[in-house]
Every structure is written in C-alpha cells, then in structure tokens.
Specification:
Strand content: 15-25%
Number of helices: 3
Number of strands: 8
Order of helices and strands: EEEHEEEEHEH
Shape: globular
Distance between the termini: 20 Å
Strand order of the largest sheet: 7-4-3-8
Helix content: 10-25%
Largest sheet: 4 strands, parallel
C-alpha cells in the first residue's frame, strides 16, 4: 500500500542497467536513454529499498557478434538455450561503458546485482539468465526482506526492463 510519503516497506524500486553504454555515445545506446536518469534520481528517495542491475560482461562474451566470425550485431544465432541476439561489445567489466551514468545519484541504493557475467549465457532479466534456469539471486533477496512489490525503471524497456518485469511478476 502506498502512503502519502511514498511506497511502503514491501515495495522496492528496481533500476535496470542505467549504464553509459546504453546512453547516447555508448556502444549500444538507447535513443534518449540519458533522459531517464534525472527521473530516476527524482523518484528514488521515495523508496526505502532501491536496487540496481548492472550489465557486466566479460571480454569476448558469447553474446558479442565479435565472438562469432562472420556474424554481425543484431543477427540471431542458436545457443544451447535457444535463439540469441548478437550484440556489439558493450558493458564489458571494468570499462567506462559498464559504469553507471555519471549523473545517476542513488546514495541510498542497497544492492547492485550484476548480470551477464557468465561467459556463455546472456542475461536480460534481473531474475533469470537467458537459459531460463540460472537464477540471479534477486528473488531470494526480495523474499528474505519481505519485498512483494517492484517498481521498475531503467534501460532498455524492450529488453532488460521488460524481461525483469515479466520474471518479477512470475
């Protein structure tokens, strides 16, 4: 239930992948992606629980087109777990592109969940890797703290925010 002062203790704000590579000038930029950052900064203080995800690929990740000679970004290939879109190299561990947007100001964030770090499995959802079997641990974290409701924001709506919302509902 929401009070006049904001969402209650059973609600968390999940901020999905607000990273440089998903903003203008980044390797996999969402048009206008940076425009969500001030909005996130404005609503986050209303939440007792603020959680972030961070795309965190090792160099040469299997989802990168550059790891598949003769393939181009945005082609689809078959992985052991099903169809996989090949991406430009992005959010590589320890690079500026993997960093959170410099204007993001969430000093009260209590968790950063890194996803996409398994070399051979991509990850869109904050709950399950793309093989749909490997959990990220977020569901357990939420259960342990009695969090039953999520408000999602971030980048990109058609992939990571969407998959996180669908898996969070399930």
């Amino acid at each position: 239930m929401t009070s006049m002062h904001g969402p209650g203790p059973e609600t968390a704000l999940l901020v999905v992948d607000p990273q440089n590579d998903f903003c203008p000038g980044g390797a996999l930029a969402v048009p206008g992606g940076h425009e969500v950052i001030p909005l996130i900064n404005r609503i986050a203080p209303r939440f007792r629980h603020v959680l972030l995800t961070q795309d965190w690929h090792p160099p040469g990740h299997a989802s990168f087109a550059s790891s598949h000679p003769g393939r181009q970004p945005f082609e689809t290939v078959d992985f052991p777990y099903g169809p996989q879109t090949l991406w430009p190299e992005h959010c590589v561990q320890g690079t500026p592109g993997a960093d959170f947007h410099p204007d993001l100001a969430l000093p009260g964030a209590v968790l950063t969940l890194r996803k996409g770090f398994h070399q051979d499995i991509d990850s869109y959802s904050a709950f399950l890797e793309n093989d749909r079997r490997t959990p990220t641990g977020l569901a357990g974290y939420l259960r342990e703290r009695g969090i039953r409701r999520l408000v999602l924001t971030g980048l990109a709506l058609d992939y990571c925010v969407h998959y996180s919302a669908m898996d969070g509902r399930a």
